[in-house]
Amino acid sequence: MNRSDQPGSDAATRAAEALSALERALRDPQLDEAQKRLLGQARDALLAANAETEREHERYRALFDAVPDPVSVLAWDGTVLDLNKAGSNAYKLPREDIIGKPIEVLNPELPEGHLVPVWETLRRGETYVIEVTNKRADGSRFPVEVHSALLRQDDRDCIVAVARDLSARAEAELRYRELMETVDKGIIVRDATGRITHANAGAMRILELDTRLGLEQTLRNDVWLTLDEDGREVPEELRPATYVQRTGKRVDSTVLGFYNRDKGVLKWLSVTCVPQFQPGSDKPYQVLSMFSDVTALKRDSRLFDRVQDLARIGGWEWESGSDRLYLTDEAARILGQAQVPATMHDMLAALREPDRTALQQALRQAADSGAGFAIECMGSRADGRTFWIGVIGEANSSAAGTNMTGTLQDITERKQDEETLRVLARTDPLTGLLNRDAVLGELDMRMGDLAAGTIAVLYIDLDRFKAVNDVLGHAAGDELLVAAARRIRDATGTEGLCARFGGDEFLVLCHAGDDPGLPERIAGRILDAFSDGFRFGSEEFPVTASIGIACAPEDGQRPQVLIQNADAAMYDSKRRVRNSFQRFTPALVQSQQEKLKLEAQLRRAADNNEFHLVYQPQVDLRQGRIVAAEALIRWRNQQLGEMRPDHFIGHAENTGDIIRIGRWVLREACLQAARWRDAGLGIVRIAVNVSYRQFLGEDLAATVRDTLREFSLPGAALELEFTERVLIEDAPDTMRTFAELRALGVMLTIDDFGEGYSALNYLRRLPIHGLKLSQLFVSGVPGNSSDIAVCQAVAGIARSLALGVVAEGIETEAQRDFLLRLGVPVGQGFLFAPGLHADEFGYRMLEEQRRAG
């Protein structure tokens, strides 16, 4: 590299010119001695400055070439001004072949204008980081991570770029993992949230962790007590890993005690915590904790006693012959007596029966057998407060007699926690109300004494809860349940007992002996409490309640019967009109029996050949010709008569029979398509509705594939209509099933689009072909402005997503004309034909063919 090419060469040139001018001036004979002396001093100073500059340049070059990574200095336009020795070695090019060349000589793939974002970032005072692929002289490529910073040099802004070779990173990471597992030190890795992501074998061994349990389970904070060297508990925010995560500063060789509450074992560890940063970040993305076991070095008695105090563990020794008892300070504090017990008799006196006798027997048996014992006892301190202790002891026999030693641990807090757990066992953890078991117990107890008056049960079910839970997720669903429980509890006040019975169902128990109108008044207050919607962010969802009321003894003399009848009344209320309450009546029993009878007959309907299909034509709205058919199921039962689908499909969904029925419909429709084909009608596409339960309950793609193969039909002969609910199931299985069906050539349509909680984000991701515009909206056009708006919106969505649209429920010419103007090409409804038997549908198709021919 020429000196003129180096950074700072302009300044060196100017210095050389100045020195030359001074030399010429000194040779001027007209100068007097004083002037020559001054010029000589200036020349000497300039020579010294030049020498210092040269030394600075040599130091710069030495440092520049000492950097192990390739470093380049670039002009504003990307021209390479300088390159260190590591760069020349990395690119396998002499420095002079790179200096003065554009940066593209090292990275040919850089796009035009690539320096624009670099300069923007650097002028904000930030570092620009990017991963690119650089080229060596032999044409081989290697990945680098380039860190660029602003450099002011020769009165101009330059870029200094450091390139880190990433080729060996994967290999280094593998060696890093292998090293972690082979070192004898413990290593624990935490992510940015503090969650433990890895513990090596050394950590598992030192901490004596159970490899069968997960790290989160074995290293929970409630299992481990962290102590400093003086035996004080270390707050969470000051523990090394937490401190390093928060500050980004390293913590070296800090001795801490870790007490395992479950095992009663104390470990002393020397801990070093190191933050690890992602390139360009000032916050650690993970913290590495390395530690070794120094328990053997921490047997100092004063510190050990202090630790025992914090763990509430005391020691005792009993000389059985003299009955003398020796206690550590912590053991004496735990017993809390006015005078420190000096004999075992004194300690036993502090205990309550029957625990006093139990400890006496344990001591006697241990002395006789030489075995150890462990027992829990309750006692009273001098101030009257109750305490619980865990006593562990073992016998030590010698020629001098039998002594016993052991530990005394204060377990009062644990016993109190156990009592709290007994309370929690009766409480629903989400809402804080009584849980199912607790309210059943309460109802059973109250119904055991009906002489005290009438017992009423209010069975409450939230309307539209499932919609909120499905659309917004389980977290919002839980939030809704908590808010609903609060409203129910506030509306009930002190006049009833509230419980969460399960899911979105609640119970209220109340005495109504002297006030028969109380259950209805409570129900009314609960309905009023649900008059306001529930807000989630900026959205408000109207969620109401349906309530059933049953009273004992007239509506049932056993808890399960009373609850079952209240449940029946609630369902009747929901069926009639939501956001209301209904008293149980004997007529509801008849309704329940009819429901059970219907479900029993429905289960046998397929085996008895009671189902048949009719086919409603789908027609070209402009020309009126048939383009497809929708298969509609009908049920004729000898006992129940002709049943409309809206009378039995819901029951089939609830019982799960819809899966079997749906499979029958699919096969029957394909069989009919094959018959029409064999009769010379060609391939008539048949649309079949698929239940959401059927979609989840079987391998739908495999069932469709096997059925099409059975009748030698192409996928184009079949159209599957799904409800909007599949749109919110963004599971991989859902996407895979739709992709497999589409690959078969099957048409995929969303039925009754616009009635539910559709989400365009889901709609655009599913590989569907079309939407069906619900007759709920078609029935209102062209007279109803709201229905017009919905139809326009659905048609617009379909156009924007390149989806087809079929309108259902067309009954008038006015509706057809409106839909044609809207751009809807295909429709079905009574204007054209109802559901037709297969022969009648085939006859109409033949007629169309005849007219077309």
TrEMBL record:
Limits of the GGDEF domain: 453-586
Coiled-coil annotated residue ranges, if any: none
Location of the PAS domain: 56-109, 172-207
Signal peptide (from-to): none
Domain EAL: 595-849
PROSITE patterns: EAL, GGDEF, PAC, PAS
Domain PAC per the UniProt entry, residue ranges: 128-178, 373-423
InterPro entries listed in its UniProt record: Biofilm_reg_signaling (IPR052155), EAL_dom (IPR001633), EAL_sf (IPR035919), GGDEF_dom (IPR000160), Nucleotide_cyclase (IPR029787), PAC (IPR001610), PAS (IPR000014), PAS-assoc_C (IPR000700)
UniProt cross-references to NCBIfam families, sorted A to Z: GGDEF, sensory_box
Protein name: EAL domain-containing protein
